[in-house]
Amino acid sequence: MFEVVEENKNVKTVKVSLDHKAIDEARDEVYEDISKDIKVKGFRPGMVPRNLINTIIGMDRINSLIKDQVADEAFHILMRDYFKDINEIDTVLPPKVKSVELGGTADILFEIHAFPKAQIESMKGIEITIPDFGSADEEVNRTIEELREEKAILTPKAADQSAQIGDVAEIEYVDLTGKDPEKKTLEIRIGEPAEGTIFPHIIGKKVGDEFDFTSTAENTGNKASLHVKLTKLYLKQLPDLDDNFAKMVDEKYETFDDLKATLKDDFNKSLDKVIVSIKRDRILNELVNKTKIDVLDSTIDYFMNYLVDQKKEDKVYDKELKDKFHGDEKAYMDSIRDEVISYLKLEGALKFVAQEKSLSVSDEEIFEEAKRDYEESKISDERLKIMLKKDPALYSMIRRELLSSKVADELLKDAVVTVEEKNEDEVIEDDEENDESEGEN
Asked: DSSP of 230-276, one letter per residue?
């Protein structure tokens, strides 16, 4: 029933032969389906004679439908019998129908694109870098200040008091161009009076004062002219950093030190997970760079066409072509090609390293990982096991993620990990961004 008729690098051509009975059954099903759908005066649905169907539909179309039906049956048999375990299928995409010949038997040729074998240069001593996330104390202090802002008390200022830096102002404004006549309200925290911001116009004003303000958008250069009225003004009082503040955040904290300790512990746990993820991603990127594969262009083209069809079906193809590649379709296709090659390299490398290091993923590990993924869904263990059994794609996805993590962790044992030095300019930019965001709040 199965015969490998050609093999070239990572591609096999397999012939599936079905007896004449399969052709007869396919023909009967095609005529039955057409007869149900076609409307012919004088005949009930399902009772239209075949010779009349031949005249209306045409024999070329009918034979094409019969071939499709036979190919579907052959594909089902191929997946059921040729591949022994559907969860271990080592193909890039589902087998592709190459040809269908109908005679005494039905002979269907399938093109099977397996993942190419990988050759990997030594990964021993390879260097990867991870970002400098700063100290936990810095992050804790930043979080505490954010909590402090949340718990701040707003006290209305007296009518004779003017707006100052750090106050919170409520303003009403309307577009002077007439494009948007609707009056709007906005609450802002007054920041440093930088040029181009509204703050120099508000500082010194009192409730009820009005003024005109023109701003220019940095990215487009478009100007907006507004008429602004100061409607409310508050003094923002931040709570003291003491035990009472800790209780304001959550009653479970007895002291301010308890709050800081918990925030620091939470940050370190979260940071550990982030660092592990970054290390894995970067060592796998290096693995791709060190990997060579011997793959047919037809496999790359097949995968590229699949991805393009998916992008078009998801209605993202045109948007990505326009936004990311400014309509340059060649550059877009080159990008997809690079993406495909990197993917094939990584998959081949994962398999190679897993075999070399005797790494594997058990069903129990897959089940436990699925439990963590679906923890919030409250799915029972039995239902989850059924899901994994009935959904090979889900099973394979989880298995692949676990295997890639194991491979990455194994490679990291021989890697040199260094921390990137934070550029002083980046520190200044971060500080400026924080100051600007505080002024906008």
From this structure: EEEEEEEEPPPSSHHHHHHH-TT--SHHHHHHHHHHHHHHHHHHHHH
Higher pLDDT, 378 or 309: 309
Rounded to whole angstroms, how far apart are CA atoms 120 and 372?
A: 33
pLDDT at 392: 82
Q: Give the span between the Cα atoms of 392 and 88, in whole angstroms.
A: 9
Return d(Cα 242, Cα 274) in angstroms, integer. 31
Cα separation of 205 and 200, whole Å? 10
C-alpha distances in angstroms, 436 versus 30, 133, 190, 356, 423?
Answer: 69, 21, 10, 53, 20
**Pairing state of beta strands 168-175 and 127-130?**
unpaired
How buried is residue 69: exposed, middle or buried, by Cβ count under 10 Å (0-12/13-18/19+)?
Answer: buried
As a dihedral over the C-alpha atoms of residue 70, residue 74, residue 76, residue 81, rounded to 10 degrees, the angle is 160
Per-residue pLDDT tens digits for 235-294: 999 999 999 999 999 999 999 999 999 999 999 999 999 999 999 999 999 999 999 999
Q: What is the rounded CA–CA span in Å between residue 367 and residue 298?
A: 36
Among candidates 430, 286, 407, which has minimal Cα distance to 351? 407
CB 191 within 8 A of CB 203: no
Whether the predicted model's global pTM rises above the 0.90 cut:
no
270 Cα distance to chain centroid: 20
pLDDT at 91: 86
Separation of alpha carbons 194 and 440, rounded Å: 12
> Would you put residue 178 in left (φ > 0), alpha (ψ -120 to 50) or beta?
left
Taking only the tens place, the pLDDT of each residue in 147-188 is: 999 999 999 999 999 999 999 999 999 988 877 788 999 999
CA 328, 330, 336 angle in degrees (round to 5)? 105
The answer to whether 253 touches 246, Cβ cutoff 8 Å, is: yes
